[in-house]
TrEMBL record:
Key word Glycosyltransferase present: no
SMART domains to which the protein is assigned, alphabetical: AAA
Alphabetized GO MF terms: ATP binding; ATP hydrolysis activity; transmembrane transporter activity
Keyword terms of this UniProt record: ATP-binding, Nucleotide-binding, Transport
Annotated protein name in UniProt: ABC transporter ATP-binding protein
Domain ABC transporter: 11-245
GO CC list: membrane protein complex; plasma membrane
Alphabetized InterPro entries for the sequence: AAA+_ATPase (IPR003593), ABC_transporter-like_ATP-bd (IPR003439), ABC_transporter-like_CS (IPR017871), ABC_transpr_LolD-like (IPR015854), MacB-like_ATP-bd (IPR017911), P-loop_NTPase (IPR027417)
């Protein structure tokens, strides 16, 4: 079951906990986290390896269920949502971009972008799909398949696919992790333009340069929020991350 909640946050977590394993082998990947991620803002999540970054992202996006606490996404409390409700939410109100692109190799860029609309039961309009591809600079690549595109171009197709449903929140897990520096800069410029236009973005990254492009950075360690920075440059983000990795 989902319920509507009055909130100004794009994502709100209250007392959220996620544990893997049992007994002496139990690992608390996310530990009693309270966090509000602003609507219309870009927040980066960083931390040492094993800090719980990706688990936090998956909980916030409804890809995993919390063991305790409450999760509200775009004003909808998804804590007790059923599988079908979560599937519907992910198809219509949430966008995902991952490091590995997750494109279907047999489909063209245009067909990959249209797929979420088809899965949501909508008949995609060609003009709509091509407009989204044009917005990420790929108007001339609509008929190309993933193998005919560079890594940066594939990631831009993935972003277009995530944005075609006009999601309330875009979640990005290491979106530049598999890209060269030039392609990474292009993708980050695109995300920055989207955030400036009012898109809510939550991004996990290990790269201080990528995190510095966001409006704010949240740091995790051992499943807990330990620090925050706003408006910091790459050097400041790198220093703060190094401090928490010691």
């Amino acid at each position: 079951m989902t319920t509507t909640v009055q909130t100004t946050a794009a994502v709100s977590l209250r007392g959220v906990t996620r544990t893997y394993g049992r007994g002496s082998a139990a690992i608390r990947a996310v530990d009693d986290v309270d966090l509000d991620l602003p609507r219309g803002g870009w927040t980066a999540v960083m931390g040492p390896s094993g800090s719980g970054k990706s688990t936090l992202l998956h909980l916030a996006a409804g890809l995993e269920r919390a063991d305790a606490g409450r999760v509200v996404v775009a004003g909808t409390d998804i804590t007790d949502a059923g599988d079908q409700q979560l599937t519907e939410l992910r198809r219509t109100r949430i966008g995902f971009v991952f490091q590995s692109f997750n494109l279907i190799g047999s489909l063209t860029a245009e067909q990959n972008v249209a797929l979420p609309l088809r899965l949501a039961g909508r008949a995609p309009r060609r003009s709509e799909v091509r407009s989204v591809l044009a917005s990420v600079g790929l108007a001339d690549r609509v008929r190309h398949r993933p193998r005919e595109l560079s890594g940066g171009q594939q990631q831009r197709v993935a972003i277009a696919r995530a944005m075609v449903t006009r999601p309330d929140v875009l979640f990005a897990d290491e979106p530049t992790g598999a890209l060269d520096s030039t392609s990474a800069r292009t993708v980050l410029d695109l995300l920055r333009a989207m955030a400036d236009a009012g898109q809510s973005i939550v991004m996990v990254t290990h790269d201080p340069g990528a995190a510095a492009r966001a409006d704010a950075v949240v740091f995790l360690r051992d499943g807990r929020i330990v620090d925050r920075l706003a408006g910091a440059d790459t050097h400041a983000v790198a220093e703060r991350l190094a401090a928490w990795e010691r």
